[in-house]
Design goal:
Length: about 280
Amino acid sequence: MPTPAPADFPADWREVNRSNWDERVPIHVAGDFYELDAFRAGKEALRDFEIAEVGDVSGRTLLHLQCHFGQDTLSWARRGAAQVVGLDFSEPAVEAARALAAEIGFGPERAAFVAADVYDAVEAVPDARYDIVYTGTGALNWLPDIERWARTAASLVAPGGFLYLAEFHPLTDALDDETGSKVVHDYFSRDAWLDDMPGTYADLDAETVHNRTVEWQHPIGEVVSALCATGLRLEFLHEHDMSLFPRFDHFTQGEDGYYRFPAGRPRIPLMYSLKATRPV
C-alpha cells in the first residue's frame, strides 16, 4: 500500500499522474499483459460479469470514461454498439487507441477517442448524451472528488440510458498487502496516497522514470450516494469474491482466470459493480 499524503495533497496531482500513465502506455501496448495480438485476432477483453450485467449493446451509443488505450472500448464496438467514444487524459493512450481501432477495422465514425480529463468530459466528447456510460476497473482511485465525477458522468447519460461501473472493492485497500487478512488502514480515509514504485502492474520489472502517483480510495457508500444525488436510479450493486490480478500473496487463479483467496478461507468482496439508470 502507498503511504498517505498530507491532507493538502499535491496541487500538481493531475500532471504527476498523467506523466506516469504517458510513460506506461507504450509498455502496456508492447507487453504481454493485455494480450494485444490475441485481441487483434478476436479474443474477448471484457469480463464475463460485465457482459452479462451491461447486456445487449447492439445499436446503442456508449461512452467509456478513462479508457486507457481503448481495448475495452473497442470490445463494446465488437459486441455491436452503434458508436463508442473513449476518453482518457493521456495523449499517448488516445493515440494508441486510435491506432488499435484502425487496425481492427473501426473508423472514427464508429469508434472515436478523445484526449481530455474526465472532469472535462461534458465539453470534450462529441455528443451530449449516451445510452451507456461505462467505466472500467482501476479508474476511480485516480480522482480526488467523487461527487464531481458522479455529476459529470450522470450528466452524460441519456434518458432511459444507464451508467455502469465495475471497480476494485475499496475494502481491499484497508487490508495488509501480504495476506489480506488484517485491517491495517482506515477504510474511511479521505487522504491522498502517494506512491513511488517503479515499473507497472503490467510489467513489474519495466524501467520507468515517472514513478510518482497520487491516488484516493472511495468507500462504496460515497460512490453510491454521489450517483443517487444526481437523479440516477440505482438498479443494482453487486459485490464479487474475485479479482483480476493477484492482489494478495495467497491468491490462487481459477480456471475462469480470476484470482481468489484459497478454498476454505472466509470470503470478502474483492470487486463490485453497479448500474444506475436515468428515468425517461
